[in-house]
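Q&A log
Question type: sequence-to-structure
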Amino acid sequence: MNICRQCQKQFDDNVLFCPSCGNKLEKQNVQVVNNIICQKCGNALTSADKFCPKCGEKTPAFYQTPMVNNMNTNVVNNNQPIQPVNQPYQQNMNTNFNVNNSNNSADGILNKIKNEYFCFEGRINRKFYITRSLIIAVVVMVLYFIIYAATTDIFGIMSDFGMMLTLIVQLVGTVAGISLNIRRFHDFNKSGWWILIFMVPFVNLYFSIKLLCIRGDVGANNYGADPF
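Response status: OK
Response body:
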C-alpha cells in the first residue's frame, strides 16, 4: 500500500505518483488484519485505516487513535517526533490581534466623542445636557490653563502660538456647546435655529433655565424618540 504524505490518500502498490498533487508516493508499512472489515461495505481494512478507502466510513481505528491538533503540531513522517509550529508566526498573530483591538478602541472613542459633542441631529434630555456641558467647561478651562502656563513668558505675555491654540480650543468648545443646545431644542420639538434666541437679552435667560430644568416633549416628536 502506497500513501501520499501531502493528500493523506492511499493507493495500490502499482501507483507511484499521486493523481491529485503529483507527489511521489511512499511505501506504507502496515499489516492487514483479516478480521477488520468495513461494517458498511465489507471492504478489508488495515490497522492504520481510520476511514474505509472504498466508502469513507469511519473504522475502529478512528475511535482508538487520539486526534492531533493540526494548529499546534506538524506531523512530518512516521516514527518521527511532532514539531511545534513556528513560534514567531504565533507572536505575529498575537501582535496583529492587539493592534487591531487598539485601532478598534481608538475608533470607538472618536465615534463616541463625535456622536455626543459634534452631532446636530436627534434629541437629548436634561441630564445629558447638563453633564456634557460641565465636561466641556472643565476641559476648556484645563486646556486654557495648560496653554497659558506653557506659552506665557516671565512678564505674563502669551505668545502668538499660545493665542492661536486658545482660539482653537474656544472654537471647538463653542461648536460642542452649540451641538448640545440644538439637540436640547429638538427635545421641545423646536428647530435648531432657536439657538439664535440666546442673542436676545433677558429672553436668553428664560430659555437657558428652560433647557436646564424643564423636561422636553413626552414621546416621539419630529426629531426622534423620547430620550428621557
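Response note: The chain has five helices and seven strands.
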